[in-house]
Please model this.
Amino acid sequence: MKQQKALTLKTLTKSNVWEVEENDIFRMWETAEKESDFKDNRNHYMDVIRSAFEIEEIEIDKPEVIKKYEARDFKVGNIHFDDNDNKKWGIKKRAINRITDLTYENIHHISAAKLIEVLDRNFGGGWDSLSQSVQDIIESGFDISTTTLPKDRLHKPGGMYDKKVNDGYEVLEITKGLWVEAIFAKAKPKVENHHKHDDDNDSMNKGFGDNYDEDFEDENPSENSYDDDDDDDFDEDKLTEESYRTTFETEEDLNLEAEDVADDDY
Model:
């Protein structure tokens, strides 16, 4: 498989660069500089590397200076641009600590546990408080589902929480008074071809007007499709846990509609 081949600077992209570490960069650079087209591609290589790594040129090559860089988790090594231009670099993988650090390029290279850690560090308002663009990035790499229940019902044995955890989902719980919102995340299998992110963002920004994508509903079956067999196998607990908010709001709306009808009749 192509993914099993060793990466080189020529095959490095802004997506797979997240798979390598600092020492790999030094090794690949040393190999690439021996190639005839190295100088022509050098700026491109730098652009790709900088998308996932912090790079600092060390101008004072002294042990005490090197130690300061290493104390900041930089890996230090020599980089040759040409025969007369040798540099010493400090390289460090960019940290993914905030929601704003998440991109379409790196979302496939973090675990569900790491995602939950990032969300936990930034959260407060719940899943719906995230911007649509951030939700799109996350959902391009992870299956996400949420539920909001009273605290005493969330961990009901055999309920949605237990089923999701047993199915390999990581969970973030956000307390909202006497209720808790649970966000479940599980990494999607990696695929060769991904949607063009610029096109995806454009369609999201345009809303559901003339450019509405008819395939949108198919990509979100959990929200837009229903199984006819559900009528024959009604599960009250499942309905309560997975659709608690929707069920509650619908009942209230129906009562209001009933009052309106009554007023019109008389």
About this structure: Strands lie at 53-57, 75-82, 85-93, 142-150, 170-176, 179-187. Residues 193-266 have pLDDT under 50 and may be disordered. The radius of gyration is 25 Å.
